[in-house]
Task: structure prediction
Amino acid sequence: MSKSILDLKIGEVGFIKALSEEELTSKILSLGLLPNTRVQYVRRAPFGGALYIKVNDHVIGIRPEEAIQIKLT
Amino acid sequence: MATSNFTKIALIGNPNSGKSSLFNALTGLRQQTSNFPGVTVEKKEGIFKLDDNISVSLLDLPGCYSLFPNSSDEKIVVNILTNPNGDFYPDLVLYVLDINHLERHLLLASQIYDLQIPMVLVVNMIDTIDNHEENIKIDAIKEFMNVDIVKISTKTGYNIDHLKQVLSQNILDIKYSTSPIYHINSKEKAGINAMKEVINYDNEYLNKIILHHHNWLSHISPSQKINLSAISDISGFQNINNQINETMARFQSINPIVQKTLKSSKNYSDLSVTDRIDAIVTHKIAGPIIFFLILFFVFQAIFSWAQAPMEWIENVFAYMGGYTKYVLGQGWIANLLTDGILAGLSGVLVFVPQITLLFLIIAILEESGYMSRAVYLFDGIFKRFGMNGRSIVALVSSGACAVPAIMSTRTIGSWKERIITIMVSPLISCSARLPVYALLVAFVVPDIKVWGFFNAQGLVFMGLYLAGIMMAFIVAFILDRLIKTEYKSHLLIELPIYKPPIIKNIFYSVKEKVWAFIASAGKVIMIISIVLWFLSSFGPGDRLEKAENEAISFAKTNNYSEEATDNLVASYKLENSFAGILGKTIEPAIKPLGFDWKIGIALITSFAAREVFVGTMATIYSIGSADDDMTIREKMKAELRPGTQKPLYDPVTSLSLLIFYVFAMQCMSTLAVTLKETNSWKWTLIQLGYLTALAYFGSLIFYQIFS
Result:
């Protein structure tokens, strides 16, 4: 298993390598989560909720189920 | 408004690009909201003048990220843009992007460009860039896409007039794009060639998008779908990989353009303020606490601030009713006008202050960017109940009225999460339940303080609200287990930077939602209140006349005053009317709940709208008007359970009735909007059925245990 956004520690930065091919991938791309993009895992919502991630110049809330699709270098 | 003669401009852009602000700035009050035919996606349209000669119609399409959509809102955009023969196909696209998110926002622009729809590109939020003349080189974008580009700011109004000039030039001299940005690859070409016999537009990219999405496009006929499916299966056209490849290729050509356009590669959008606010507002522990404090403030504000205007509205209608009766006398026309139509109208309008206030606050929270934080915070909990973080907007709105709340679920992409949210929304106590709660709660506990400072009645109130909320989660949990779907749900939400809300946008958003309530809820409440007026004013044969004579002679022998006689007549008449007969018919069914036939009448009359309960009680207990809560309460207090010396409205019966009102689906407007939004009789009947069952058995079990 390669490393995904879900494997980052709070505050840690990673760079996107690839996205696994899923129904939502084009949506993820259109939100600016492209290969080589810098992502920072900032915090987590309570009760196993969404991840607060910073992508380049903006902020995205994403479920862990989707975050795991985004593989990092 | 006939729009067919005007040049049709479609306003398109990503969510949060300032699209609505531009729409409001251009059209102002000349806008109207309706639905696209056949789908429940909001259609906002407005007409405005570009100059003295040219008027155009502007269609505001839902915010959209790309031509590969995920929600029904986004799909409508693709449906319109892929149907050149359709009614809504634009002559010109006005594309809005946020300069701070240039790269992402150019994606959809480049796709529309390749569809060869004439376009004017608007670069918005220019006010956030220092010295934009120097720092933003729009010529670079012009090399990429040969369209007219206008830098504007919807916040300051900068260049809006210039935009109008550019639009009118483009209408007089329509320009079509010539060279595509994305180059169709050989595999795609094979698919497009194969589909030629089914559909063949001149534009290759348009053919590709149609082939890719054909199974849900509304303008593709069933037989075309079968043919296209066969072709796309062979050429592997519909797979996700195709979407990814195109999107990646587009971003590869967009990226250098962005580098050239923005002078330095510095991070343009200033996240520092947003960062600091979010450190607290989206904090694991502080976040939810802040949310509930806001919620507490919201409802506190609604209940106290809306009180006065609600009383004015009631007084105005009471006065109008009295005046109508004075002018028209006592005939049935006067009664229909006052007790049917005016009463119905008053029953609708009396909720407008509360609903306006709640939607005002929700609009401010949405405009400022807070609402998406609430979505982020609570998705984890809602997910476990088969819902989505976005459900929180609907559930909070349900505190005012379930009708606009159910409409707001359109942003939820997953069908299952949306259906569950719609199903449970009516369980959140809405403003129409308040008058009923307020009347009955006095029979449950006296107006005393508990532990020194809690008001006992306030605690019961809170308990009723909590019962509704808890039941909503229980039902959602069960539905989550029952509904099977192959589609995966998701949450991917942009958390925009915080910005001061634009008053114009708030005004239109509130206006729209309040109007949705008046138009859809209002219509139903009006019709039903006329039907109920008929049921309670007429009876079979000469039964009513007999009852009236009986009441008059009874009043005479007991020396009643004129007013008391009138009230007694009204009460005797109601008992013998169709409504009274219905009440008596259902009495055996509701007796185990502790209710008598009089409550039965009120249950029937409040089927259309819950608050009618109070008015019916006033008529049953022969009180001239429902204005005086105290008198109704005293009369109800004196009422004895038939055959006993015990009061009918003891705490147990009253609580049983309250439980009934917490759960029961006594709102025709909500059912109507559920039918419209789900487009399914099955789900509408499930909603009616399960809520009625909850109400009935909830009251039954409670009463049987505690009486």
Notes: Chain A is about 15% helix and 35% strand. Chain A has a mean pLDDT of 88. The domain at 5-72 of chain A is CATH 2.30.30.90 (SH3 type barrels.). Chain A has one domain: 5-72.
